[in-house]
Every structure is written in structure tokens, then in C-alpha cells.
């Protein structure tokens, strides 16, 4: 497993992959780590601090090539993609159980890493703003805040579950955002991923 | 108060603050159109989300 992670890290580091495949590679790294270390969520605050430091560093050293991984929203979206697929994988798998244990932490990390990308475009530093990206980001704000245990404890459980359904609107909005802004080689891959997600989600819901 | 009511009230507050703030900034020509939308959006998001969280956490 370590060797698979190293290969994926190397592929991302070399920079030969298009953005869509970079997202899949980074998601693969996250999935393998979640499978191996199922109790990562117990040290969530350490990861949040690291994510904040990396995001701040990306803003300061914006000219560095590796900052693009954060500025283009690749790492942020990878975490969110892992959260998405944890909802479509079969429940009886060990992988699914490990992913679900950590998906609250992953969604918060996704928000932290996506914020520099959002700020970059909002303040006009890197091209135009896209309305679907804005909608997704605004919806992510309340969902991220209520994902913290401190806040979650204060909210009625039924209400909390209903609010999390808004995540589907975020997923849809983000996919449309990706399809609109990406170039053709990435559009095809995003469309395939979206179709696979929808297909498996419908099958899983219909089986219930 | 049901969850849907909380969402509706928060959304109304968000839209109201966004509209008022961005129009005010433009009427007095304090900022450009884009910056007025940006400031209106950021402030209204913060206020709307805080109000929503307040409604969620508040005990009946």
C-alpha cells in the first residue's frame, strides 16, 4: 500500500497528469490512508491546523507550481470526492466503514483546502468567477460549521441529518462548475465520474 | 420552529442583507459593481449562516 501511495504521489508531483486525473490520484491516496488508518478522525484538529498552514502557505507562495494543487481546488475537491464515493460504496465493505468514520473530517478539510481557490477567483487573482462554484461554496459554509463536534452536539439529530442532504446540491453544483470551467480532456473524465456516481447512487437507493 | 422555517428565515435574511448592502454600495458609488456584489455576498453569507446556526442551537 505504501508503494501505491508513493506511485500516486510521484504522478501528482511530476505534474504530467491533467487536473481530473490528479483529483483521482489524490483521492486514491486519501482512500488508501483512510483504509489503513481508520481512526484518523480522532486527531482531526491536528489535520485542520496542518491544512490551514498549507492553505496559507499556498496563498503566500502562490508562484510555486505546487501551490496550483491548492489554488486550482484539486486537493479540496479530492477530499470532497472521497466523501461522495463513501456514500455509494457497499455498506458491508471495511473500506466503506472506514471512509464513513472519517468523512466528517474530510469534508471540513475539503472546505479548508477549497477556500484559497474560492478566494483566488473571488478577488480576481486567477480568472473569472463561476456562479456554480459560488453556490457550492456558500452552501459548504453552514455544512462545514455544523460538522464540528462542538456545534453538532447542540443540534437536534434529525435536523442535522436533514441539513446534510444539502450536500447533494453541493455535489451537483460542483460537477456543473467543473464541466463548465474545465477543458475538453478533463470534461470527459468529470462527465464519466459524475455518471458513475449518479448510477451507483440510484442503484444503492433503489435497493434500500 | 421546524427546520424548513429556519432555512427560509435564514435565506430571507441572506437575500435581504445581500440586496441592501450591494445596492447601497452602488447607489452611493462607493465601489464598483463587482466589488459591491463581493462585499454584499461575503457579509450576507456570514450573517445568514450565523443566524441559521443561532436558530438551530436555540432551545425552544
Structure report:
The complex is a heterodimer of chains A (208) and B (60). By secondary structure, chain A is mainly alpha-helical. Helix content of chain A is 78%, strand content 0%. Chain A is built from 11 helices and no strands. Chain A is globular. The model of chain A has no long low-confidence stretch (mean pLDDT 89). Chain B is mainly alpha-helical and 60 residues long. In chain B, helix 1 runs antiparallel to helix 2. The N and C termini of chain B lie close together (8 Å). The chains are: A mainly alpha (208), B mainly alpha (60).
Count of discrete alpha- or pi-helical segments spanning 4 or more residues of chain A: 11
Structural class by helix and strand composition of chain A? mainly alpha
Count of distinct structural domains of chain A: 1
**Average pLDDT reading of chain A:** 89
Roughly how many Å is the radius of gyration of chain A?
A: 17 Å
Shape verdict of chain A: globular
Number of E-type strands of chain A: 0
Structural class of chain B: mainly alpha
* Strand fraction of chain B: under 5%
Instruction: State the end-to-end CA separation of chain B.
Output: 8 Å
Give me the strand/helix succession of chain B: HH
The helical percent of chain B reads over 70%
For the report, how would you describe the main beta sheet of chain A? none
Average pLDDT for all residues of chain B: 90
Amino acid at each position: 500500500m505504501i508503494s501505491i501511495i508513493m506511485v500516486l504521489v510521484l504522478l501528482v508531483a511530476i505534474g504530467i497528469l491533467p487536473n481530473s486525473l490528479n483529483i483521482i490520484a489524490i483521492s486514491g491516496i486519501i482512500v488508501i490512508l483512510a483504509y489503513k488508518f481508520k481512526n484518523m478522525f480522532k486527531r482531526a484538529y491536528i489535520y485542520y491546523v496542518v491544512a490551514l498552514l498549507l492553505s496559507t502557505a499556498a496563498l503566500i507562495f502562490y508562484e510555486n507550481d505546487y501551490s496550483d494543487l491548492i489554488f486550482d481546488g484539486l486537493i479540496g475537491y479530492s477530499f470532497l470526492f472521497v466523501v461522495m464515493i463513501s456514500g455509494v460504496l457497499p455498506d458491508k465493505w471495511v473500506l466503506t466503514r472506514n471512509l464513513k468514520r472519517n468523512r466528517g473530517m474530510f469534508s471540513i478539510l475539503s472546505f479548508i483546502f477549497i477556500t484559497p481557490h474560492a478566494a483566488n477567483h473571488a478577488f480576481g487573482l486567477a480568472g473569472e468567477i463561476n456562479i456554480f462554484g459560488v453556490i457550492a461554496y456558500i452552501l459548504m459554509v453552514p455544512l462545514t460549521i455544523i460538522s464540528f463536534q462542538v456545534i453538532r452536539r447542540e443540534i437536534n439529530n434529525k435536523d442535522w441529518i436533514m441539513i446534510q442532504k444539502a450536500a447533494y446540491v453541493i455535489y451537483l453544483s460542483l460537477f456543473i462548475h467543473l464541466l463548465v470551467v474545465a477543458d475538453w480532456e478533463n470534461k470527459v473524465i468529470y462527465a464519466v465520474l459524475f455518471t458513475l456516481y449518479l448510477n451507483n447512487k440510484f442503484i444503492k437507493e433503489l435497493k434500500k | 420552529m421546524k427546520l424548513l422555517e429556519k432555512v427560509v428565515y435564514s435565506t430571507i435574511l441572506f437575500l435581504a442583507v445581500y440586496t441592501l448592502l450591494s445596492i447601497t454600495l452602488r447607489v452611493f458609488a462607493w465601489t464598483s459593481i463587482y466589488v459591491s456584489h463581493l462585499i454584499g455576498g461575503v457579509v450576507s453569507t456570514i450573517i445568514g449562516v450565523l443566524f441559521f446556526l443561532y436558530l438551530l442551537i436555540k432551545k425552544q
